Amino acid sequence: MCSLSSESLKIDCAEATRRITAFIRAAVFERFRKRGVVVGVSGGIDSSVCAALCARALGPERVLVLFTPEGESGSETLRLSRLAAASQNVEGVLEDITPILEAAGCYHRRDEAIRTAIPEYGAGWRCKIVLPSVIDDDRYRIFSLVAMSPDGRTVKKRLPSDSYLGVVAASNFKQRTRKMVEYYHADRLNYAVVGTPNRLEYDQGFFVKGGDGLADVKPIAHLYKTQVYALADYLDVPDEIRSRPPTTDTYSLPQGQDEFFFSLPYDKMDLCLYAFDHQYTPEETAAALGLRPEQIERVYRDITGKRKAARYLHAAPLLLEDG
Amino acid sequence: MVNPADDMEMRIRAFLADNFMMGQDSTALSRDDSFLDAGIIDSTGVLELIVFLEDAFGIQVEDEEMVPTNLDSIANLIPFIRSKQTSAEA
């Protein structure tokens, strides 16, 4: 077996693009008999690469890009989303989903759940959910809520399970509303909907069932995030998007993906997942990543635990005759 | 009279049966079985377990105490709860 290093994830971008664009054409035109695709773009690397691949596969005129910001989106989200669309010459449609979220009670229900743990939480406050690092010790990764008052005071509280579930359930309105709007446009145009998870997100269940997890075709779900960045370079995704740190853009305080879900920054997480799947020992992986073997053992356990939890997210509806 | 340790175990087993084993017989779970390895409790489940421990046994579980050696089996839970109760009384 080859020694583990960042070289392990190197891909031939031209060949990868050829395979993926052929796959998109076959899925959309032949399998689903659709005229084009809708891609929800967030200004992040994954959705920008998906839009670029779809434009190459089907022609830019058969790709509709949706910008779906809401009241708590990052200040750069819309501008970078427009930049992603413009760089591929695809049409973009703005759908501000804030009114839908307000009508559904997304913000209100979430804030009510937060107030069970932080009673003073109210207008002008912002929040995010964080997890402790898995590599530091054997502690369970228990969710905490970080809230910031309008005058900049920060409160961090461990959330009781019902509060945590209430916050997540309400926040999930965002992903599900985006998907509802994507399918509206897909239905109107007889298009398919593209899902934009990379391998880390798809494998580890970092998506909302019926939200960003719902799609007709997922063209980069087999690619590690490192490989998505390589493709972004090859496909001329703008520098600003390629240099933006991965964010969830779900909570009102800035939140990196590695403080909410993944154990490590994406480049290290990629290599750990690759190493785990290719049976590298914790010692070998630790040497490649500059970490200790016991830290890698914790990451491996975390990968296994997330895979178990992701089974439900991936499961299609059960039918009696499936046995 | 019920032995306090037996009473504690019964309450833990009843909680596990009601919340994670969906009515299955919790006596099938041995005292040493890991909740995580047995697929009984996930990370959200740990949150529920902590709320239960704090409510049912009047203890406060600190962040640094949320480790498998304290919480991942019935055999680990009982001495942990006892030591928390003892230190609270002292």
Walkthrough of the structure:
In chain A, 48% of the residues lie in helices and 10% in strands. In chain A, strands 3-2-1-7 form a 4-stranded parallel β-sheet, sandwiched between helices. A 3-stranded antiparallel β-sheet of chain A has the order 4-5-6, with no helix packed on it. Chain A has 2 domains: 10-121 and 161-247, HUPs (Rossmann fold); 263-314. Chain A is of the alpha/beta class. In chain A, helix 1 packs across helix 8 (225-234). The longest helix of chain A is centred in the middle third of the chain and has 29 residues, at 161-189. With 90 residues, chain B is an all-alpha fold. Chain B has a domain at 1-13 and 42-90. Chain B has helices spanning 4-19, 43-57, 68-71, 74-89. The longest helix of chain B is centred in the first third of the chain and has 16 residues, at 4-19.
CATH architecture of the largest domain in chain A: 3-Layer(aba) Sandwich
The strands making up the biggest β-sheet of chain A line up spatially as 3-2-1-7
Measured by DSSP, the beta-strand proportion of chain A falls in 5-15%
Average pLDDT of chain A, rounded to a whole number, is 92
Structural class of chain A: alpha/beta
Distance between the termini of chain B: 25 Å
| Rounded radius of gyration of chain A (Å) | 20 Å
* N-to-C series of helices and strands of chain A: HEHEHEHHEEEHEHHHHHHH
Counting helices, strands and paired strands, the structural category of chain B is: mainly alpha
Q: What features would you highlight for this structure?
A:
A: 323 residues; alpha/beta; Rossmann fold; three-stranded antiparallel β-sheet; 13 helices; globular; B: 90 residues; mainly alpha
